[in-house]
Design a protein that fits this description.
There is one protein chain. By secondary structure, this protein is α+β, with helices and mostly antiparallel strands. 48% of the residues lie in helices and 14% in strands. Strands 1-4-5-8 form a four-stranded mixed β-sheet. Strands 2-3-7-6 form a four-stranded antiparallel β-sheet, with no helix packed on it. A two-stranded antiparallel sheet has the order 9-10. The longest helix is centred in the C-terminal third of the chain and has 29 residues. The chain is globular.
Length: 389
Amino acid sequence: MDLTYTAAEEEFRDELRAWLRANIPEEWGRPEFWESLGDEESFRVRRDWERDKAEAGFAGIAWPTEYGGRGGTPGMKAIYDEEMVRANAPRTVNALGLTFLAPTVMAIGTDAQKKEIIGPLLRNEVIWCQGFSEPGAGSDLAAISTRGVRDGDDFVVSGQKVWTTNAVHGDKIFAMVRTEPGSQRHRGISMLLIDMHQPGVDARPLKQMSGASEFGEVFFDDAHVPVTECLGEIGEGWRTAMLLLSFERGASGIGQYTEFRRQYDEIAAVAKRLGRHRDPVVRGKLARVLTELECLRLHAMHVLTEVEQGRDLGFEASMTKLQWSETFQDLWEVFDDVLGEDATLDAVDGLDLRPWHAQSMWSRSVTIWGGSSQVQRNVTAERVLGLPR
């Protein structure tokens, strides 16, 4: 395992840091600034800023230059993730397209798809969302029932997707659709690229317990999708989906570690301010989660080393998702332990707890989306350790 970066990668870090210092206004670091904008304006500001970042050459870090990327190394991408967190940069508005869709299109898309999708996505001209989960098919993705009936050169799509991030802002959606009548489970599914601004597509927001509406649900009522808008082969959507998901789960967790470690330091500071650091039970829990965080850092560097050496992680990628999601959840459970009976208050000892409450509530979801912890444990046990079913 290599714990260092090359001279060229450190030079990239200095260049990125300088750009971020010059292009992130100071007020953006205050939660109340974003709250004052409202959801729509906040989304617009982030979208415009990210477009400017792409034009400056700080997007698609590890993408080939032929697709508008920087052509950088996996180490540069890890540095990018780390420095974005350290600079408190705005969250991307196009995460699903950048993380999942674009690398998949580069790998298996047609020439026309590569031309139409990758550049506009990188510049945030088109916002993408993901249509996987359904009311009756959450972690069991093979249980989807949204159907696409062939009608000449089109599929006519009907059904529903739920827990769709950016549903109300999405221009297009890459969706798993059952295109073979009578097919079951993994067979007969296709990955369709659907225009969300056409008749027959209705996106509705879902309010979360934090008050945000990051998720939504999408209804298809005889929406038309050209057959050419299938990513991968027709009926091979399961294979396409597994390739697509591998780009997230195979990524290094450097960015997650950096963010979680900063949150840990804030939680430890709260414990000291409230005098809870003197409680041996609280100290023990803080020490335990700090150990988890450092294990996450070392695992992230291991993954980065493997990727840089050209090794395909395969099913081992499930271990990364499992580790960072469980660590994140454990971290915010310690926050609740630090506050004790004050955990339900909006403020204590002059501290505004509302931003931390939002993070704590969000942490409950991370062991569900992107493949639940139960699923990841089964994959690791069966496909990595070779244990019997």
